[in-house]
Automatic annotation (TrEMBL), chains A, B:
Residues 164-375 form the Homoserine dehydrogenase catalytic domain. It holds the Pfam family Homoserine_dh. Coiled coil: none annotated. One of its GO terms (molecular function) is homoserine dehydrogenase activity. Pathway: Amino-acid biosynthesis; L-methionine biosynthesis via de novo pathway; L-homoserine from L-aspartate: step 3/3; Amino-acid biosynthesis; L-threonine biosynthesis; L-threonine from L-aspartate: step 3/5. It comes from the Eukaryota. This is Homoserine dehydrogenase. It comes from Gomphillus americanus. Keywords: Amino-acid biosynthesis, Methionine biosynthesis, NADP, Oxidoreductase, Threonine biosynthesis. Residues 6-143 form the Aspartate/homoserine dehydrogenase NAD-binding domain. Catalyzes the conversion of L-aspartate-beta-semialdehyde (L-Asa) to L-homoserine (L-Hse), the third step in the biosynthesis of amino acids that derive from aspartate (the aspartate family of amino acids), including methioinine and threonine, the latter of which is a precursor to isoleucine; production of homoserine leads to a branch-point in the pathway as it can either be O-phosphorylated for processing to threonine, or O-acylated for processing to methionine. The keyword Oxidoreductase applies. L-homoserine binds at E223. The active site is at K238 (proton donor).
Length: 384, 384
C-alpha cells in the first residue's frame, strides 16, 4: 500500500492524531473520546533520519501542534545516544518513557532490546524486529516477560495496521484456546490486484493482469516499484509475526515457500517503469491461471477465483504464501477494494473461523493502531 | 443459541478454563500460555441462586478443581451481604476483588454500582446492566471513569461472546476515529435460520421456514422456546450496548423498532410445542418474502437473500432490528452456520467496514470472553 508522500507519513499522522486527542475541544458535540492520562503525555523528541528535535527538559516539552513546523534543532541521534539521553534527562521510575517507532528501519528494530533493558517501553509499527531473525524476536519477548515490572512492547500495527489482529491472537492463546491455523489475505495492494483481476461478480470487463498492476501503481495502491509488493516479502513478514506470536520458531521470512508474482526474467530489470513496460509479455501466464480457476466451478459464473493467501498451519508446522484458487463462498472470494482478511481456526471456534477484515494499510489506520497500543501501555503503567 | 445443559453453563466452563490456565502442565508441548499473575488468583466464592460456596479466609481458598463437586456450604447470598462479606474478609487495597457475573440476572446487574463503589472490579457476560435503563448504564460508567484509581468493569462477552467486538469499538473511539454506523448479524440462532432458509449457494433443497425453526430447536441452536430468539429482543439488547458504548442515549431495547419473527397470533399461545405445531401455517408469509428477495437479483441464482440485521446509525441516531434483503456479494450473505458478523463503518476505515465475524454464542467462547476480560483487569491492576 502506498505511503503518504514525504518522510514519516505514519509518524506525522500519529502526531496529528495525538494532538487531536490531547486537545480539549469545546466546539464540537462529537469530540473524540479522550483517554485517561492523555493530558499527561509530553512529547520530548521527534527523531528523523537526518535530524532530531529534542526538548531540553520535561518542563518544556515539544508542542504537539508546532513540532512539524520546527526544523530539527540537533543532528540525528543513534539509538545508544538516544537511550542515554532519555534515561538521564527523564530518569525512571519517576516518568514512564515510551519510544514510538513508525519507521521500517532494521537498525532501530535491533535496538529494542537496549531500549527495553533500559526500562523504556516500545510501541511500534515496524515489522523488522519481529519478522527478521528468531533470536531478536526471542530476546525482545524474553525481556518483556521477565518479571512483573518489565517494560512493555506492543506492535499491533506491524500486522494489519489498526485492525485487532495480534491482540485477538494473543487473547485466544492467553485464554487457553488452541489455534490450529492462521490464514489471510495480508496485503492491501495484492488484495486490490486480485479482487479486480478476478472479481466475484463478473460485471466488470475482465482486463489483463498487467493493466491492473499499472492501475494499482497509478492509484498509489502499490509501492512506487510494484515489485516490492509482488515479491510477497511483505506478506511473508506478517505471517512470520503471526506464527511466532502463536509459538512457532521460524528463521525468517525467507525460510519457507513464498510465491513471488514477479516473472523471473523481470526480477532485476531496471526500474519500475521498465518493469511495467515488459510485464504485459507475461499476461498469458496469469490468464491461463485465471481460466484454470474459473474451470473448477460447477457452471458458468460459478468457478473459483484466485487470491493471494498466507497460511500458517500450527498443527503441522507448515507455513507458506501463495496464489490459491478459492470457492466463491469463501470469505477470501468476497473481499473488495484493498481489504485485508485474517482468519483464525481454533479449537473453541470450531468449524467456522474467527475472522477480522478491513483496511489493513494506510497512514490513518496504521497510526490508529499505534495510538491504540500507546493507550494500552498508558492504561497498564499509569500516567499521573 | 442453546446454553450448556444444567445451571451455570458459562460459569462452569469459565472455572474449568481457569483451572486449566492456572495449572502448570508439564506433559504437553503445546500448553496454553499462562498469563502473568494467574498463579496469584484465589477463588473465594462460587455463588448460585440456591446456595453459595465460600472460602472462610484468603489462606484457604476454594479449589479450582474441586469446587464443582462440593455442595454449597452456605445459603444463597444477596448482593449487599456479598459486598459486605467480601470487603470485610478481603479488605482492599491489599487484595484486588473481582466479581465475575455469568448469569443473566437483572438483580445482580443492578448491584454493579454497589460492587464498584465498594472498590470491587466487575467482569461480566450479563447483558442486563448495559441494555436495560440508560441510567444504570450511565451510573456504572460514571463510577468506572471517576478517577485514575476507579475499579474496572469489562463486559466484552455481553456482545458477540468471545469475539473482540466491544474492545474494537472502544479502541476506534479512544483513538479518535469517528464511527458512522454499526451493523451486524448478532444472533447465532437467527444467523443459522436465515443461512439455511436462504443459503448463498442453492445446492440444498429449499425447505419451508418452520422446518428450519424446528430443526434449529432440535439441534439446540435456539432456546428451548424458539420464540425467545425469534422475538429479536436478544439482538436488540446487543445493539443497545454497542450504540451506547458509541455514545448514543437509548431508553432500552424496546425504545426502537425491532421486527419480531413470531407471527402475531402465535405470540402468546401455549408452550414451545404448541408454537412449533402451529408455525407451518405461516410458512407462506416467509416464502413470499423469500421470493421477493430472490426476484431482486439480475438473473437466475443472482437474487438477493434475507438476513436478520441490527443497525445503529450514529450519524442520524436511527437504530433498528429487522429482516433485510442483502446482495449476494454482501458479507452478510456469505455467512455460514451460526456465525455472527459485526461491521463498523468509520471515517478512517473508509468505504469498506472493519468486520469481525465468527461464533458469537456458546459456553466455550463466552467463557473465553470472560477470561479475556479477567486477564485485562489483572494486567491493569497488577496481581502480586
Amino acid at each position: 500500500m502506498s505511503k503518504t508522500p514525504g518522510p514519516g507519513g505514519v509518524g506525522s499522522t500519529f502526531l496529528t492524531q495525538l494532538h487531536q486527542l490531547t486537545t480539549k475541544t469545546t466546539t464540537t458535540t462529537t469530540k473524540p473520546s479522550r483517554f485517561s492520562g492523555a493530558e499527561n503525555i509530553n512529547l520530548v523528541a521527534v527523531l528523523r533520519s537526518k535530524s532530531s528535535l529534542r526538548a531540553p527538559s520535561i518542563d518544556s516539552p515539544l508542542s504537539l501542534e508546532g513540532w512539524s513546523r520546527e526544523e530539527g534543532n540537533q543532528p540525528a541521534i543513534e539509538p545508544e545516544q538516544l537511550t542515554t539521553w532519555l534515561t538521564s534527562t527523564y530518569p525512571p521510575p519517576h516518568r514512564s518513557i515510551i519510544i514510538i517507532d513508525t519507521t521500517s528501519s532494521s537498525l532501530i528494530a535491533e535496538s529494542y532490546p537496549l531500549f527495553l533493558r533500559s526500562g523504556i517501553h516500545v510501541v511500534t509499527a515496524n515489522k523488522k524486529a519481529f519478522s527478521s531473525g528468531q533470536s531478536l524476536f526471542d530476546e525482545i519477548y524474553r525481556i518483556t516477560t521477565a518479571d512483573p515490572h518489565h517494560p512493555l512492547v506492543y506492535h499491533e500495527s506491524s500486522v494489519g495496521a489498526g485492525m485487532p489482529i495480534l491482540s485477538t491472537l494473543r487473547e485466544l492463546l492467553a485464554t487457553g484456546d488452541r489455534v490450529h491455523k492462521i490464514e489471510g489475505v495480508m496485503s492491501g495492494s495484492l488484495s486490490f490486484l486480485f479482487n479486480n483481476f478476478m472479481p466475484l461478480t463478473n460485471k466488470q470487463e475482465l482486463l489483463p493482469w498487467s493493466s491492473h498492476v499499472l492501475e494499482a501503481q497509478r492509484l498509489g495502491y502499490t509501492e512506487p516499484d510494484p515489485r516490492d509488493d509482488l515479491s510477497g516479502l511483505d506478506v511473508a513478514r506478517k505471517l512470520v509475526i503471526l506464527a511466532r506470536v502463536a509459538g512457532m520458531k521460524i528463521d525468517g521470512p525467507d525460510a519457507f515457500p513464498v510465491q513471488s508474482l514477479i516473472p523471473k526474467p523481470l526480477a532485476h530489470v531496471g526500474d519500475a517503469e521498465e518493469f511495467l513496460k515488459r510485464l504485459p509479455a507475461f499476461d498469458q501466464e496469469m490468464e491461463a491461471l485465471r481460466l484454470e480457476a474459473e474451470a473448477e466451478g460447477e457452471g458458468e459464473g460459478e468457478g473459483k477465483v484466485l487470491r493471494y493467501v498466507g497460511t500458517a498451519d500450527l498443527d503441522s508446522g507448515q507455513i507458506e504464501v501463495k496464489m490459491v484458487r478459492v470457492a466463491r463462498e469463501s470469505p477470501f472470494a468476497g473481499l473488495r477494494g484493498s481489504a485485508n482478511l485474517f482468519a483464525f481456526w481454533t479449537e473453541r471456534y470450531g468449524s467456522e473461523p474467527l475472522v477480522v477484515q478491513g483496511a489493513g494499510a494506510g497512514a490513518e489506520v496504521t497510526a490508529m493502531g499505534v495510538m491504540g497500543d500507546l493507550i494500552k501501555v498508558i492504561e497498564r503503567v499509569g500516567m499521573e
